[in-house]
Amino acid sequence: MIRLKNVLAVTLGAALMVGSLAGCGNNSSKSADGGFDATQDISVVSREEGSGTRGAFVELTGVEEKDADGNKVDNTTTNAITCNSTEVVLTTVAGDDYAIGYISLGALNDTVKALKIGGVEASEENINNGSYTLSRPFNIVTKDGISDVAQDFINYIMSEDGQKIISANKYIEVANSGAFTSTNPKGKIVVAGSSSVTPVMEKLIEAYKAINTNADIELQESDSTTGITSTSDGTCDIGMASRELKDTETALGLKATVIAMDGIAVIVNNNNPAEDYTVDQVKDIFTGSAAKWEDVK
């Protein structure tokens, strides 16, 4: 009897564990033959409002449209799962067979699959030649009165040395200013903003501090709008933005400098058989016009 109770307890415990895992939001339903079930709802994964990646994505795909009064309206479906960083988008899509999201191309890894857009692969080469349409700039944002150490760091980013780090991290170089020589100024720099720009900025900071050991640089990850606002109010010295500045922002005396170009990869789970969508199909998914995978036409 004791042995039977033990078996029942183990069986019940295993059942409870399976039930708890199924309740974590991981949609892994399969068709009757064990394959991808196209009748399942699409799990749309989006970035938060204020994200430069979201701003660029909705503009480039037509998810953002102008209303009758000429105001821009983001038509991302209200059913979308909202994530506050690139890393969370990646893990969410990787853990859900029926999810689709978008990330910086430089952050792409093998935990997910990037779709071709209009038959064109998301790659550095195709962004350079203009055939991959979902691309945007990585900007740093500054205003007048920048410190000597902050200017020295910017000079490094835009130099041949800094741009080599850009390309080594799978982003696209912009024209560089040649070899870098530091004046070794002393002081603190606060860099804040876009979570898409943050990974490559970490590498740039690490390399610059090896050259100028007098520099103390603090990096704060958030989103593009926060980085721009923080630069405007003096909370940070250099903002990071993965979108262009708005007219209302440049009117505040802010200046954007492109440090790299990046593509936006539309990603799905590795178990999803989809390989290639048009921009219109992506738009239909993210506006909710196509609610199930079988609706993507």
TrEMBL record:
- The yes or no answer to whether the keyword Nuclease is present is no
Subcellular localization, per the record?
A: Cell membrane
Query: What Gene3D superfamilies would the database entry show?
Result: Periplasmic binding protein-like II
Annotated GO CC locations: plasma membrane
Alphabetic keyword roster? Lipoprotein, Palmitate, Phosphate transport, Signal, Transport
Question: Could you confirm whether the keyword Lipoprotein appears in this record?
Answer: yes
The record describes its membrane topology as: Lipid-anchor
Matching entries from Pfam families are given as: PBP_like_2 (PF12849)
Instruction: Show where the PBP domain sits.
Output: 38-160, 181-295
Please give the biological process terms from Gene Ontology that the record holds: phosphate ion transport
Signal peptide (UniProt feature, chain positions): 1-22
Task: Give the multimer and partner information.
Answer: The complex is composed of two ATP-binding proteins (PstB), two transmembrane proteins (PstC and PstA) and a solute-binding protein (PstS).
Biological role stated in the UniProt entry: Part of the ABC transporter complex PstSACB involved in phosphate import.
Protein family (similarity comment): Belongs to the PstS family.
Q: What name appears for this protein in its UniProt entry?
A: Phosphate-binding protein PstS 2
Protein's organism: Coprococcus eutactus
Give the encoding gene's name. pstS2_1
